[in-house]
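To whoever is on call:

I kicked off a structure prediction for a single chain this morning and the downstream step that reads the tokens threw a length-mismatch warning. I double-checked the sequence; it's 240 residues and nothing unusual in it as far as I can see. Pasting both halves so you can look.
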Amino acid sequence: MNGDDHRQASPGETAQTLGSAKLPTPEERLRAIGEISAGIAHELRNVLQIIGASAYVAQKYPAQAAVHLAKIERNARHAQGIVDDLMALARGEPAREELVPIAKLAAMAREELEPGAAIFEDDVGLLSVRAHPGLLCRLLHVLYDNAIQASRPATPRIVTRGRTAGDRVIVEVSDDGPGIPEDIRSSLFDALVSRRPGGTGLGLALARRIADAHGATLRLAEGGDRGATFEITFEEQDGP
């Protein structure tokens, strides 16, 4: 499937329940809610920092207040979107999926990142996936932000690639950072697993859960000392 086919599907075609492949047990639901609640806190941290910094500048430099008040308003709406999307994921509510170009998702995922934090390259062509845009944007954001944080103080090169394999769409995110320590690779997607100073170990756990909710798989394809490559595989992406 590629970006040439953008016919809008009907509501009956697009309404799907995230994570509806099987009903979770009460224990699984409680664990999911705990992980996703922690994930919300993790994802809101950067947004709140931006709001705080903008409020400070607006107060200190009244002539620039309008610009920074607009930034506060924009990020407040974004924060509400994060909470709504992730709590819907936790509750297993119906989610509206749509056909979205991977290039657009990648651009959205980079909007919150510090300018110049990484050198980005995209090789996705017109490829699209059927997904919840807000949630898949969070997944890519986690991968980008992890690569940046792990590489500090260096500026990493991050490449997003897309390809098809039969009716599957595969998205790869590669960086040239320090790679993943061998002793945590097997538990990398577990909550609270991190070797990075200041790392929470919540981002990749949330990313895996978002992938699972889309019927996709997220795995570490390469984690050596020449960088890391994460692979997201979307099953049966054969168009609307």
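Update from on-call: the warning came from a stale cache, not from the record. Cleared it. Sanity check on the structure: The chain is about 45% helix and 20% strand.
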